[in-house]
Design a protein that fits this description.
single chain; 10 helices; globular; eight-stranded mixed sheet; Glycerol-3-phosphate (1)-acyltransferase; alpha/beta
Amino acid sequence: MNPAQSAGDRAALARAGDTRWPGFLDQARRYSRQRVALSLDGLWVAGLDEVRTALADRPLLVAPNHVAWWDTLLLLVLDEALGGVGWAVMDADNLRVLPFLGWVGALPLDRRSPERSRECLEASAALLDRPGRAVWMFPQGRQRPAHLRPLDLKPHGLHILHGCSPVDVVAVSINYVFLERNRPAAVVRFSAPMPAATVAGDHLVPAVENALLDGLAEIDAAAMAATDGGRARTHPRDPLPGFTPLVRPLGPLPQNGIGGRLLRAYQRRRRHGS
């Protein structure tokens, strides 16, 4: 990169409100992986390899559904696994309260006026100018249980981002699933990248919604298959069909009290069909 390009890139980052701090980002990713391993029944993914390959070749717009505050930690782990440089669009008021999220790649979205909102989104979209770059945006705009239909996607932000930078789009389905353990598994399904030309204009939001719904249905099917036929998935190495572990849980939680002994007795009875 020549000096002029470097200066231009710095200006683009400043316009978008980038305050990334690489040292803090490294620590935050490490913390996120540890927190997921300790508190959840692992992080399971499908479709990651295809999106990682695509991102190495071109920039991407990434649209996940938004289920819980855990999503922020997952995005740090998922974005690292993709191997590029990612940002996430975030409400500017929330970012002022939680400025450290800017240090890990959050970009401010000022909602005080439609004009200012558009300016922020256009500046974020301008970062999608080279392979390896991704901008994440939750099109629901708020946390919403994954089982509710419709998904209630808000078209405004997606349309501006994609209209300014017509890149391929990836939908990321997220859910938290209890699989007969006392903590839920985080399960994530990446869609195949949807070509920019096929999702342009009025096709964009329906395409993202359909891809999110397909991914959520795959997650439900995997959860059913994991415990089908009376099986009980009680060990972190037990498979979740169709998904691979990105972060494995750090072993089963202790079950040494009377509740744990009763649970193990019940599971033995189920395995023996009595």
